[in-house]
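Support request from a user on the community tier.

User writes: "When I paste my structure tokens into the form, the page sometimes reloads and wipes my input. The last time it worked, I copied everything first. Here is what I submitted, just in case something in the input itself triggers the reload:"
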């Protein structure tokens, strides 16, 4: 891959003084000098990363594995072959990605492919954030469907104004943005899944991905799954041999990443496509 690279663990991920839960959605990650984001900026960074990966796969005509091969004894899963006591080999499923460029026309896909997120964000952040309220002069008022303009009498009390805002203005707010991050996925989930896909496309094995010092697969922030702050995700061990079972854990991360890659092509991000084996 030329433009898509796995995301290594940064010094911020190793700081024990930072809260483990909700860091990516803190107010400082959503509110800036020019506007407010529905979710932390890291979510839009991940959407950008997945779209960049999809565009690169499309540009290079890369055949993407959406489901790996596996064996099963269930004959009902594959053309009636097999049965009790016999293993049936189920071949892998692949596809060539096609991005909905009409949906992403305002994103400038050629720039998404070649630019870094920070550089691209400078000229495209208005697609995602709601502008902060401000007092405008009568000469600067322009017709714009994204804004509500109010005329207020300076003699009006702040108490009456709040009542008016709650009763008449609030119902007009909270409109769903066109580019909305769906679902309740956490930033580290999206990151792990992305890294699993990119590292696999670069030829790394499951063992190499999990053991790499760059921390490509890191522990999620929910309680019960974390080994240590900023540490690696929990990997179960074989009860007989005691060896770590990387394959199953990696496959869950990879399949989740493929889900997001497919939904991004369709113009969505956050919920996945539910194509798990």
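"...and here is what came back when it finally went through:"
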């Amino acid at each position: 891959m030329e433009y898509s690279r796995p995301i290594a663990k940064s010094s911020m991920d190793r700081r024990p003084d930072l809260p483990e839960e909700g860091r990516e959605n803190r107010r400082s990650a959503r509110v800036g000098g020019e506007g407010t984001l529905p979710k932390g900026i890291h979510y839009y960074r991940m959407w950008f990363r997945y779209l960049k990966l999809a565009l690169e796969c499309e540009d290079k005509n890369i055949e993407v594995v959406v489901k790996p091969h596996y064996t099963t004894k269930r004959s009902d899963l594959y053309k009636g072959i097999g049965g009790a006591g016999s293993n049936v080999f189920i071949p892998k499923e692949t596809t060539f990605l096609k991005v909905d460029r009409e949906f992403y026309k305002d994103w400038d896909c050629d720039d998404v492919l070649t630019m870094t997120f920070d550089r691209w964000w400078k000229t495209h952040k208005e697609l995602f954030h709601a502008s902060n309220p401000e007092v405008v002069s009568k000469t600067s008022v322009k017709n714009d469907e994204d804004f509500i303009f109010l005329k207020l009498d300076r003699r009006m009390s702040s108490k009456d104004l709040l009542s008016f805002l709650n009763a008449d203005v609030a119902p007009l707010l909270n409109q769903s943005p066109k580019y909305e991050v769906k679902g309740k996925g956490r930033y580290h989930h999206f990151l792990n899944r992305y890294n699993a896909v990119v590292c696999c496309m670069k030829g790394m094995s499951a063992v190499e991905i999990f053991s790499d010092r760059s921390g490509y697969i890191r522990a999620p922030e929910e309680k019960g799954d974390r080994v240590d702050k900023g540490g690696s995700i929990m990997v179960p061990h074989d009860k007989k041999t005691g060896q770590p079972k990387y394959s199953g854990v990696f496959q869950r991360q990879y399949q989740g990443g493929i889900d997001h890659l497919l939904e991004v092509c369709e113009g969505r991000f956050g919920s996945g496509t539910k194509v798990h084996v």
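Agent notes: The reload is a front-end session timeout and is unrelated to the input. The first strand starts at residue 35 and ends at 36. Helices lie at 27-30, 41-59, 109-114, 117-124, 158-169, 187-201, 206-211, 246-265. Escalated to web team.
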